[in-house]
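Chapter summary example.
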Amino acid sequence: MDRVVQGQGPLGDDPPMFADLAAHGLTVSVVPPLGQINLRGLDHEIAQAVAAACNGLDVTGPTNRCVAAGASWSLCLGPDEWLLVVPKHDTNDTARDLAAGLAGKHASIVDVSSNRIALDVGGPKAVSLFSSLTSLDISDLGPDRCVQTMLAKAQVIIHPLAAPTTYRVFLRPSYARHLADVIVDATRFL
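The structure predicted for these 190 residues follows.
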């Protein structure tokens, strides 16, 4: 008998620990699994292959720039590094298409979908929460930007979404419970 076992993230689908945060002006939710591809290479050498594999996604431009194309995102993490965020079911096809388009070029394509989970943190107190957990000022960060920083001793990528005061936080699964506990504790002081 074949049985499919569905894995669950380190926080589950809807942790009850986040249920009471709305009363403090904060919402936190676990984002369903995303496809994440780490891409390394020179932007002028990889741009055409990325655009072809990801519905016109643009990887040119400065570090910390975010660009959307359909349901895909490009987060520029360094001068030659991007995190491509795609729908989970498209990860294998996107990686395969990138590999075909970049054959013979000096580039690296790695599926890192299991390397990070994502939390959406929002509400009128979201900026205050981040201010209490990191020295980085994110109040002027728009949806076309992202940052890598330490958040309560956890390495994260913060990407503001188009919705006002909502931020997507990518973090390692091993830090998920720690950061969730810190967020819940910090709301008492917002």
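To summarize the output: The longest strand covers residues 34-40.
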